[in-house]
């Protein structure tokens, strides 16, 4: 290396190194949103909007793809004679992506649990009214009204039950574990359809 080139290199080494570090950081700017926003608030709003399950599935797939993409990146980056260890950064971003999946899954499961409890109470009330002893005319009218309610809402409730089951299936497919998920899933499956109840 010529003397003039060597002098230039020594003089500009800090600047070149800093520019190289800044350039390498730009590679990760597209993941900024993963740590810039509050996961709890965003996921709450997203689930409360009642978006279709297919969109939620796409969200889980989106974060899973980010993790897979990051895991394929090299864990070191060379700037001149300096080698940057990117593994802590990559691991941190992957952790944020996984936390988005987990938080969204927990919010979705919590909403599912509320829907299950609500439906269980509705079915219990219908069952109680249906099995009421018809001693008075009012009792007979209530039983007939209950039968009519069951006949008109059976299909809707069966669709809701299937949606709940599909929700847990989606969480399971993306390996998102939430507390009491399996218990709640078996509860939904055990409810059966309203059409199976005695009329």
From TrEMBL:
- List this protein's GO terms for biological process: microtubule-based movement
GO cellular component annotations, sorted alphabetically? Answer: dynein complex
InterPro entries (UniProt xref): DHC
What's the protein here called?
Answer: Uncharacterized protein
Query: Listed GO molecular functions?
Result: dynein intermediate chain binding; dynein light intermediate chain binding
Keyword line: Coiled coil
Q: Work out whether the entry's keyword set contains Transferase.
A: no
Classification lineage: Eukaryota, Metazoa, Ecdysozoa, Arthropoda, Hexapoda
């Amino acid at each position: 290396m010529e003397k003039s080139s060597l002098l230039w290199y020594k003089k500009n080494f800090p600047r070149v190194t800093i520019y190289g570090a800044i350039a390498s950081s730009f590679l990760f700017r597209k993941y900024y949103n993963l740590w810039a926003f509050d996961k709890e608030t965003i996921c709450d709003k997203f689930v409360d909007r009642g978006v279709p399950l297919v969109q939620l599935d796409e969200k889980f797939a989106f974060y899973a793809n980010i993790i897979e993409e990051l895991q394929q990146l090299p864990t070191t980056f060379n700037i001149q004679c300096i080698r940057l260890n990117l593994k802590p950064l990559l691991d941190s971003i992957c952790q944020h992506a996984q936390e988005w999946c987990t938080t969204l899954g927990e919010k979705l499961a919590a909403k599912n649990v509320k829907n299950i409890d609500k439906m269980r109470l509705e079915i219990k009330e219908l069952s109680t009214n249906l099995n009421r002893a018809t001693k008075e005319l009012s009792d007979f009218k209530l039983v007939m009204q209950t039968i009519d309610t069951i006949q008109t809402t059976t299909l809707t409730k069966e669709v809701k039950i299937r949606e709940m089951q599909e929700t847990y299936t989606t969480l399971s497919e993306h390996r998102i574990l939430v507390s009491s998920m399996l218990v709640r899933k078996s509860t939904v499956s055990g409810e059966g359809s309203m059409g199976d109840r005695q009329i």
